[in-house]
Amino acid sequence: MSEPAFAPSGAAHSTTTSERGSFCTARCSCGWYGPARRARSLAREDAETHVTTAGGDLPGQRQTPPPLG
């Protein structure tokens, strides 16, 4: 199940959560994704924190590098 959490108007970040087995991961339209969590609530918090900090990485979270070229 995917649960969208949208950034404030005018922002470029749109996040969702996705489940794989017993883990839930937050992902963003900018390429960011958070760590796999067993608790959906923690994945949602990761997404909210990402949107609030406009993409700042937090410990355990990764920023996908920009495409080459």
What does this structure look like?
The chain has a three-stranded antiparallel beta sheet, covered by helices on one side. With 69 residues, it is α+β, with helices and mostly antiparallel strands. The longest helix is centred in the middle third of the chain and has 13 residues. It is 19% helix and 22% strand. The chain is built from one helix and three strands, in the order E-E-E-H. The chain starts with a strand and ends in a 17-residue tail after the last helix.
Reading the helices and strands in chain order gives: EEEH
Helix content: 10-25%
- How far is the N terminus from the C terminus? 35 Å
C-alpha-based Rg, rounded: 12 Å
**How are the strands of the biggest sheet laid out side by side?**
1-2-3
Number of helices: 1
Number of strands: 3
Low-confidence stretches: 6-10, 55-60
Envelope shape: globular
Topology:
Elements: E1 5-6, E2 14-20, E3 23-28, H1 40-52
Antiparallel strand pairs: 1-2, 2-3
Quick synopsis:
This protein is of the alpha+beta class and 69 residues long. Helix content is 19%, strand content 22%.
Features:
69 residues, alpha+beta, three-stranded antiparallel sheet, 1 helix, 3 strands, 19% helix
